[in-house]
Amino acid sequence: MLAFFYRQQAVYDLVTLTEEKNVTLTKFFANTIWQKYGSFLSSTQTLSNEALAANPQIRQLNENVIVQLESLSVVKVKIYDLQGRTVFSTDFSQIGQDKSQTSGFLSAKSGQVISQLGHRDTFKALKNILEDRDLLSSYIPVHANGNKRDIVGVFELYSDVTPLVQKINQTQCQIILGSIAILASLYGTLFLFIQRADRLLKRQYQQLQESESSYRNQADELKRVLHQLQQTQTQILQNEKMSSLGQLVAGVAHEINNPVTFIHGNLHHIQKHTQDLLRLIQLYQKHYPHPVTEIQVEAEEIELEFIEEDLPKVLSSIEIGSKRISDIVVSLRNFSRMDEVGIKAINIHEGLDSTLMILQHRLKGSREKPEIQVIKDYGTIPPVQCYPGMLNQVFMNIMANAIDSLEEMIETKTNSEHHNLSCQITLRTSLIKDKWVQIAIADNGCGIPQEIQERIFEPFFTTKPVGKGTGMGTSISYQIVTEKHQGKLEYFSTLGRGTEVVISIPVRQSGVRSQELGFRS
Question: What does the alpha-carbon distance between residue 138 and residue 15 come to, in Å, rounded to a whole number?
């Protein structure tokens, strides 16, 4: 996807830049060639195609064009009169062809510039035959005496952009290879974690079998040990998952933050220098309103007025973009919370928003599925004492399950039904009895079947396909809320209508127990 979007943008920039060069070159032709040959080219209706191609002025015009295009990327030039007849072409065999019904000619005749990028296996250029080349053709109107309303003809220029397209293709390949390398390294890391967890599971299972055969008379004690082992295993997996995820997120945020800070910090100086230069130009224009001809021509060619207007906008757009990246970095840091140890008083809403930022790519719509809307109903709540990283992991698990439920519902619908399908996740926070904070996360997905609702918090229980879920998310979330925060985790689900998960934790961790909670959603 990254390589595809890069190629689309790069090709668009290539077409735009080459088209601008062709327009500039056409202006130059209009000021030189058209002044000399324009009257002849506009009055060739009485000449046959053969007579026109053999005309001495056409031969002389062709020589002038070849001389002026030497060392440029333009490989062919055509000139059409207003009736669409090819009155000149560097390929004499094309003189006299009728292009009056082509979309490019019609657009240029109406005053618009249109360009098209294409590939040619063979192409007759100015002096030789080109093979396997990428060419950009531009239809450009010719204006009489600089009057944009008075069009006297149409130029068609072919530019050879093969080296630039090849460079785009090479960069695209590099992006693809780089992405594959990153994914391979991430896969390798994940594979090592899975192997380690698998060894732990196998070792514990072997110990369990040995204990069962050795102490059959101590069944009750064995159950207690097994329960402790499951809790230890869950805690090990949770610690490893949180540690690796937090380090990865914090590392990525740090690496992004350095260049963004550098860019954002220098933007102020660039804006100031730009304003100073623009003020200096305005002073020159004020005290020297009639500069020499060379300066006037250069100002017109670079479109000085447009630059003065557009340059501050460009810098403003860059500043907005860098601010957006900074906000994403802050969200990543808030989610990882790697720099915070122990219980901290935090803003719960920041944790919810940071989690939404991480999951934003799964909320966006596409051709295959509609957008998932997030409705925030945040109440007024004080800072809450908690383990920020662990609580963010709970939010991540619950929201990811809500998205999975909505996607499962979407898969049961046809493409025509997607337009009328409303997919929503509602986040609601409130303060209960001034001592408890309640966070409710609800979706309108497919819901949970009644027969499996009692097993939701069991370790390793999952209804998802192999490879898509481990069955640890809800179990770990339940442990974090009930054991780490002395809170309560409930769910309310109706098959076909959706699920609501309610998290209740005390505002302060000391002296409060979950048994004091006397309310429901």
Answer: 9
pLDDT in tens, 427-455: 999 999 889 999 999 999 888 888 777 77
Q: How many helices (H) and strands (E) does the chain have?
A: 12, 12
Secondary structure of 54-101 in HEC code, one letter for each residue: HCHHHHHHHHHHHHHHCCCCEEEEEEECCCCEEEEECCHHHCCCECCC
- Per-residue pLDDT reduced to its tens digit, 72-129: 888 888 888 888 888 888 888 888 888 888 888 888 888 888 888 888 888 888 778 8
Which residue's structure tokens are 């952009």? Answer: 161
The pair of three-digit structure tokens given for residue 393, joined into one six-digit string: 């992991």
Asked if 99 and 80 touch (Cβ cutoff 8 Å), the reply is yes
Secondary-structure breakdown of the chain: helix, strand, coil percentages, each rounded to the nearest 5? 60, 20, 25
Q: Which of 310, 26, 309 is nearest to 146 (CA)?
A: 26
Region of 425 (left: φ > 0; alpha: ψ -120 to 50; beta: rest) is: beta
| Residue in 41, 83, 81, 45 with CA at minimum distance from that of residue 62 | 41
Cβ partners under 8 Å of residue 291, min gap 6:
284, 299
pLDDT, tens only, 289-303? 888 888 888 888 888
CB 45 within 8 A of CB 118: no
Convert 319-378 into a string of H (helix), E (strand) and C (coil).
HHHHHHHHHHHHHHHHHHCCCCCCCEEECHHHHHHHHHHHCHHHHCCCCCCCCEEEEEEC
Question: How distant, in Å, are the alpha carbons of 15, 140, 145, 147 from that of 30?
Answer: 22, 11, 8, 11
Tokens at 338, concatenated: 């790697």
